[in-house]
Amino acid sequence: MAPAGEAADDPAGTAATAGDLPRAWVSWSSGKDSLMALGEARRTGTVQVTGLLTTVNATANRVAMHGVRRELLEAQADALGLPLHVVELPWPCPNSVYEQRMGDALVEAVECGVEQMVFGDLFLADVRAYREDKLAGTGITPIFPLWDRPTDRLATEVIDAGVRAVLTCVDPTSAPAELAGRWYDQRLLADLPPQVDPCGENGEFHTLVVDGPGFAHPLDVRVGDVVEQGGFVYADVVPTGTPPG
Questions:
Q1: Which residues of 139-177 are buried (b: 16+ CB within 10 A; e: fewer)?
Q2: Per the omega criterion (within 30 degrees of 0), is the bond before 243 cis?
């Protein structure tokens, strides 16, 4: 396999070096689709990924929606060897505040030389259109390396690639609440009801990646308490050795 940022097939040796490629950040949710999008962006050798961009609920000190502890988010970035750029959000967070702070983050990205933003979206056209609209005129182009992949096949690719992920958040109106805290594996896929997207693209569930392609080492974690809050069911994934509570 070619090094990250270089073309995989270039027998003539004419591919651009990583330093010649457009710089990109990954819109990082802490979950499996973000990792797969990062890997695909690197595999194609068309961008140089130089950072991760994440939103964090500053009140809870956790990744927005996924409920992932900040220390695990930072551990992911360390294992991937990429700088982490955090957008601090209040809770509750009005949309106007969200857009203002994301706008500030995009200004920072441009100042860092970023020309592209990598997203792990799969098929939700309205979400893609929103991202494209908000990036229009910023100097940053959105790219969607996983777009329109059949999600049943992608789910199997995730597992076959060696991605280790745990379900940290479940919407009980869309998927069984007892999935929270389970590992994303073939047994889980077999247990999903037919109406649940195997990648959770409709918001049925969210994941935390603890190992996979690009990780220098796995994160050492255990699944702690499972609680219901704000209409969602969260599994508190904690570093091994963290006291309960």
A1: ebebbbbbeebebeebbeebbeeebbbbbbbbbeeebbe
A2: no
Q: Determine the 3-state secondary structure of 77 from DSSP.
A: helix
Query: pTM of the entire structure?
Result: 0.90
Give the domain extent around 119.
Answer: 21-239
Q: Residue-wise over 50-72: b if at least 16 C-beta within 10 A, else e?
A: bbbbbbbbbeeebbbbbbbbbeb
- Asked whether residue 245 is domain-assigned, the answer is no
Please give the tally of structural domains in the chain: 1
Instruction: Identify the CATH number of the domain in which residue 60 sits.
Output: 3.40.50.620
Mean pLDDT of all residues in 30-53: 97
Instruction: Please state whether beta strands 114-118 and 23-27 pair in parallel, antiparallel, or not at all (unpaired).
Output: parallel
pLDDT band at 245 (very low <50, low <70, confident <90, very high): low
pLDDT of residue 10: 42
